Amino acid sequence: VVELSPEDGKAHKCTLCYDRLKGGLEPACAKACPTDSIQFGEIEVLDRRAHNRVQELHDLGVANAYLYGTPGAPGATGGLERLNAFFLLTDKPEVYNLPPAPTRGSERAPRGFKAGVTTLVGLALAAIGLFGALSQ
Amino acid sequence: MNLSDLGSDTQSTSYGGQSYYGLPAVKRSPWDWKVAMYLTAGALAGGAQLLAGIACRFGGARLSHAVRNARYIAPAGAAVGAGLLIRDLKTPRRFYNMLRIFRSTSPMSVGSYILTAFGGLSAITALRERLNDVPGAALAPQLPASIVAIGQCTYSAPLLAASSTPLWAAEPELLAARYATSAVALAAATLSLLEQRGGRRAAAETLDVVAVMATCANALIVREETRRLETAGVHAALREPQSRSPRRAAHALTIGVPLACAVLHALTRARTFSIAGSAAIVIGTALSKYCDIADGNRSADDPREYLRFTQPHTAAHV
To answer: What pTM was computed for the model?
Structure first.
């Protein structure tokens, strides 16, 4: 998550507490989380743990529980294979302000660029035709 | 899954209007009028250089003064635009870091290089023009300058579309096409004003026709863009009272007034209508860019706009 700091005017991004990781500790948010909802670790390990937890919740009767952002799940859409931070949710993604089908923004740029260049070439050809007709 | 509808929404069948306590789902851009003015200056510079390339090759002697003016406008617009962008940086002193790396997937990185290349080539053509006795003669650096001008006119729209701001990202092709037509209309209108000032009516009238062609294309694109944004339900920001009047004024100035002036000019041959139409395009384009930035920021503040934009049915055609 990128945040613009009003103090130094720079954009700062979560480093997953790089300094703590170097010391063998988990990030401060994961450590401080009272319900241990924020978990930190190797993504494969977390993946397995999350799938087990969903199964466990289903067995307990919480039929709404599902994963968001894991491969093939909501959140991993539009060319996004997976999110490196994924969630276990019990309601529609919108209820958590999460996009139901996010896409990669940078993939929109070439589409816009092509459309813009095509339009300009069209207008340039029209202008050439006009100047040609007038100079006859 | 519990799919209870927490709100009513007529725009989309699959989205019930829920959000996390109405808090913004994405961050708004930090851009204000400086970036809007940059978009205007950049479009004017790019459009002018493109028209200079076409006019010096196909326009004949009649447009030679317009070519000269266009060659001066291009570097001036690039310099003013770059100045505004640098002012907009949080640490303007270290603007050169924008060119430290090149990343082809980042429109801002690509754009920084396009603007630099465009500014450099435009400075060279302007200098060569200054050294020539004959205005608007064919120049060797004109072709590369005009080719880079196409990039200069185009790159800012994909840059906006690559963000997560719903209003900018919903229709990348139409946004880019609209910016392309408005760049040509703006440049032709500005050059026409300068020709009228120099008393060269024939040249001004030719440029007016270019402006009208671009304005007609612009009108069609605006129409289609509005229709598609309404269908996707990503236009709530456009309907807010503080956005509606400026946007209406921008549409009137960029489309309605110039087209009406073109008709009146054709009927009466009065110089006033050419000047009024061109002036409307210049003012209207600046206002329209300002509306795009302000409305985009408002659309980012509204979580429902973003969540509608990211519905699966929208994502299929996005």
So the answer is: 0.91
